[in-house]
Design brief:
Radius of gyration of chain B: 23 Å
Order of helices and strands of chain A: HHHHHHHHHHHHH
Largest sheet of chain A: none
Strand order of the largest sheet of chain B: 1-2-5-4-3
Largest sheet of chain B: 5 strands, mixed
Structural class of chain A: mainly alpha
Structural class of chain B: alpha+beta
Strand content of chain A: under 5%
Number of domains of chain B: 3
Number of domains of chain A: 1
Radius of gyration of chain A: 19 Å
Shape of chain B: globular
Oligomer: heterodimer
CATH topology of the largest domain in chain B: Cytochrome-c3 Hydrogenase, chain B
CATH architecture of the largest domain in chain B: Orthogonal Bundle
Strand content of chain B: 15-25%
Distance between the termini of chain A: 46 Å
Helix content of chain A: over 70%
Number of strands of chain A: 0
Largest interface: A-B, 29 and 34 residues
Number of helices of chain B: 18
Number of helices of chain A: 13
CATH superfamily of the largest domain in chain B: Cytochrome-c3 Hydrogenase, chain B
Helix content of chain B: 40-55%
CATH class of the largest domain in chain B: Mainly Alpha
Distance between the termini of chain B: 61 Å
């Protein structure tokens, strides 16, 4: 029976299909909000789903010189990485499907997998736009990854555990956004960097490098990369609201808190200008990383002092 | 200094090489010199800081006369001096390049070579710039005896088979931008060699929107050409037809009535608002600030609607006629325009605040692509791009034309010369334009809208200079006294501004390149004017009449 439940969990609910659908719904909300902020009408509610269906139905064109194994394998890996990460995160206010000591670190690295796949995909297709896009994707990865990890470390330190379920037990009843505001900000903006949303969209800056690393991708491959992004969005939002916003208990609380975060993210997207890649790196290392380090240091000192 | 003093100074400077002095118009002195003396004469004008090189016009004086003529137009305020170099009509003629003295001349010289077959010795550019790659060698479309069947494409030599210049070596490779690229709203081709993110070399290719308008003008009568020249550009169409009208009116010695001139200035002002708001949106989009892009284009609709109310059209307004204008401004229209201007002014003030205070946008514009005043002068910059560097280049102020003497505008300048200054100059300029438009609406002269124009235009030459939204627009109109012009040469402002972009891109980050490209507000259609239309599927060249038949058939069958 246990195998059946696990399979159901992985394929349908809460991970798998339903997660993908929720991801598409959130993507629609994001696009709609951005459109309304920019005085446009925006897409209809099923647009991301329609895009995915259309892409899956389309031919996937393979450039002549690519390694086919990597070309077809990378999108699958990216999506699989994002979906696996979902198993350890309290999505939609439910308890994580699986849990072990140290799953926070595993989740964070699984969340980086899609970006690394995008980088490899750009390198593999070796188009000029793809190459520059891939370089930028990976450069950006090195910029936001460490501060993002440190921002996730804050709640872990406060709870004294590397296990997501233990941390959420602690954060329920603690609004960590109040005690660790810097960590919250860095985590939220780090998520935007992860998802390559404006102002961190230099890796896919269309006016310079068309579609960046994914320029040569079409059909299924492109769809899987995109869906991977949607899933990442949900996982990231769940993690941040679980850690910093008094935990998520039940679907209503999940919707309220994650949508509030999404609203803030859309606002940031429309008000900020795209950063050049050197500016992105500068921002993360000169401000993000240092601020979050200072916060960690203060926490460690306070903890030691209290003990 | 008065016009006469400027002209006599030029004449004095050019005296050592002067073979013949001509006075085609009251503000012009033309000096005939021989080809060998060209560089000396240009250097003399340059050393004395007498104006700037505005255009080089190439003319075929006809098979009977056996002569070609190249005119180097120098403008100094309202005064124009043209150096005329006469050459025999053969295929092995050459002129020394002056592009080392005046960088933008490289593009003019290239045009001279491709269109008239005058070889430029020591030219800075050697690749095709305007004509298609499969255009046959030794066929020059602006020669008088050119026929379209000479232009049969050379098989097996077209752009898509150009040698692939992918990886240059190591970390260096070429990033192609265009002809189809999200950064470009019109076709052009740029190759930026990048080392990582840093641009190390830049190259460009124009001509994707060449339609052969200058050649086509020679086979149409004076009135038909009005509609043709309106279609040189889709953004500043009014200024093109206005420049053409001014040139032809000068030749016919007819002056448009005051009311018509005021309406011309009014439409030009509205067009400037539309053009600059469009530019602001494009620039914001290149920088990745899509919200500003959406908002400025939304507000641009206001002025588009006003133009539609006044002229009946949104893009090619067709407001001008030879000798006047087609549309009147009624009281209701004047009221609607004023209301529209009120809204636009508040919006423009808001955008001015955004581009000067938004920290993120400033990080992409401040101190980027800085052009000093000296560089601006050397590159021969025009329009808002030059004014952002503190160089006053504004025909409306320097060489007042039309109703600008009754409703003057002031030239807006900034000193920084970076992308921010270019944003600020353009927006402030709009406020000045709005003020002028309001004055016109309040004091619109009464009277007729048109003056009578003859069907045949008396023989002569006229230079018409107009401030288009992108800078000085230069028209050279020549008549032999017939029903069709002998030569109309168009030099658009974008052509003069290219050199600065290519020079400034080197050493910058790739991410700044779209901004630099957009910073001068390039207009590709304006650059490209000449050449018969080629249908790429069947690879045959279509004549105008064939194209016209095709168009009529196409719409019949729809």
């Amino acid at each position: 029976m246990n195998t059946l439940t696990s399979l159901f969990t992985m394929l349908f609910f809460p991970a798998g299909i339903s997660l993908i659908l929720v991801g598409m719904f959130y993507e629609w909300i994001d696009r709609k909000l951005v459109a309304r902020f920019q005085n446009r009408i925006g897409p209809r509610w099923f647009q991301p789903l329609a895009d995915a269906v259309k892409l899956f139905a389309k031919e996937q064109i393979k450039p002549g010189i690519v390694n086919p194994f990597l070309f077809f394998g990378l999108p699958v890996t990216a999506l699989a990485g994002a979906l696996t990460a979902a198993l350890y995160v309290p999505i939609m206010g439910l308890n994580p499907a699986s849990s072990f000591d140290g799953d926070l670190i595993v989740t964070i690295y699984l969340l980086s997998l899609p970006t690394m796949c995008v980088g490899l995909a750009g390198w593999n297709t070796s188009g000029r736009f793809s190459l520059i896009g891939a370089t930028r994707s990976l450069t950006q990865l090195f910029a936001y990854e460490a501060p993002f990890l440190l921002a996730m470390l804050g709640p872990a330190l406060a709870a004294g555990s590397w296990q997501i379920s233990t941390i959420t037990e602690y954060t329920e009843g603690h609004w960590l956004i109040l005690t660790q505001p810097i960590g919250f900000l860095v985590a939220l903006i780090g998520l935007m960097g992860k998802l390559e949303l404006p102002p961190f969209d230099a890796p896919e800056a269309e006016t310079e490098i068309v579609a960046g690393a994914l320029t040569e991708y079409s059909g299924r491959g492109l769809a899987m990369f995109k869906i991977g992004k949607y899933v990442e969005l949900i996982i990231g939002l769940s993690l941040i609201s679980a850690f910093y916003l008094d935990g998520v208990n039940g679907i209503l609380e999940f919707l309220l808190k994650t949508l509030a975060l999404l609203f803030i993210m859309s606002m940031l997207q429309v008000t900020l200008t795209r950063l050049r890649i050197d500016q992105t790196v500068g921002l993360w290392w000169r401000f993000g990383a240092i601020l979050v380090l200072i916060q960690l240091l203060v926490m460690i000192l306070l903890k030691g002092w209290a003990a | 200094m008065s016009i006469e003093e400027r002209l006599s100074q030029a004449e004095k400077l050019l005296a050592p090489w002067n073979k013949e002095t001509l006075h085609p118009e009251s503000n012009r002195v033309d000096v005939v010199i021989s080809g060998e003396d060209l560089r000396l004469a240009v250097a003399a004008l340059q050393d004395a800081h007498w104006g700037y090189l505005s255009a080089i016009t190439g003319m075929d004086l006809g098979v009977e006369s056996g002569q070609l003529e190249a005119l180097y137009h120098f403008c100094n305020g309202p005064a124009v001096t043209s150096l005329r170099v006469r050459l025999p009509r053969s295929n092995d003629i050459s002129i020394a390049s002056i592009s080392d003295l005046i960088p933008p001349a490289a593009l003019f010289e290239r045009e001279l070579h491709e269109m008239l077959g005058i070889t430029i010795t020591g030219a800075a550019l050697s690749d095709r710039l305007f004509l298609p790659d499969d255009w046959p060698d030794d066929v020059y479309p602006m020669r008088a005896n050119f026929t379209t069947d000479q232009a049969a494409p050379v098989q097996g030599r077209h752009a898509d088979e150009a040698p692939e210049q992918g990886v240059v070596g190591g970390n260096t490779f070429v990033i192609p931008i265009g002809p189809q690229h999200p950064a470009l709203k019109e076709p052009g081709h740029f190759e930026f060699t990048v080392d990582g993110e840093i641009v190390t070399a830049a190259r460009m290719r124009l001509g994707y929107a060449h339609r052969g308008i200058e050649k086509a003008a020679e086979s149409r009568n004076w009135y038909q050409n009005l509609y043709l020249f309106e279609r040189v550009c889709g953004i500043c169409s009014h200024t093109h037809s206005m420049a053409y009208c001014l040139g032809v009116e000068k030749l016919a010695q007819v002056e448009a009535p005051p009311r018509a001139q005021a309406i011309r200035e009014l439409v030009a002002g509205l067009e400037r608002v539309h053009s600059h708001l469009l530019w602001l949106g494009v620039a914001a989009h290149e920088a990745g600030f899509d919200t500003l892009f959406m908002y400025s284009w939304r507000d641009r609709e206001t002025v588009m609607n006003l133009l539609e109310q006044v002229t009946g059209n949104r893009v090619n307004y067709s407001a001008n006629l030879l000798g006047g204008v087609k549309c009147d401004i009624t009281l209701e229209q004047a009221h609607a325009i004023k209301e529209g201007l009120n809204y636009l002014e508040t919006r423009i003030r808001h955008y001015l605040e955004v581009v000067t205070t938004d920290a993120m946008f400033l990080s992409r514009t401040r101190n980027i692509g800085t052009i000093t005043k000296e560089e601006a002068e050397r590159f021969g910059l025009l329009g808002p791009t030059a004014r952002a560097s503190g160089l006053v280049r504004d025909v409306r102020v320097e060489a007042v034309y039309g109703s600008y003497k009754n409703f003057p505008v002031s030239a807006v300048t900034e000193t920084n010369g970076d992308l921010e200054a270019r944003c600020v100059v353009r927006l402030k300029e709009l406020l000045v334009s709005c003020f002028a438009m309001r004055t016109i609406l309040d004091n619109l002269p009464e009277g007729p809208l048109t003056a009578r124009m003859p069907r045949k235009i008396p023989a002569g030459e006229a230079v018409a200079r107009i401030e288009a939204p992108r800078g000085e627009l230069f028209y050279f109109v020549k008549s032999n006294g017939g029903e069709t012009p002998a030569r109309v040469h168009v030099r658009t402002p974008s052509l003069c501004n290219w050199v600065s972009v290519l020079e400034k891109a080197v050493g910058r980050q790739l991410a700044d390149v779209p901004m630099l490209l957009a910073g001068m507000d390039p207009c590709f259609s304006c650059n490209d004017r000449l050449v018969t239309v080629a249908n790429n599927d069947q690879h045959e060249t279509w004549s105008w009449s064939r194209l016209r038949e095709y168009g009529i058939e196409y719409y019949k069958n729809r």
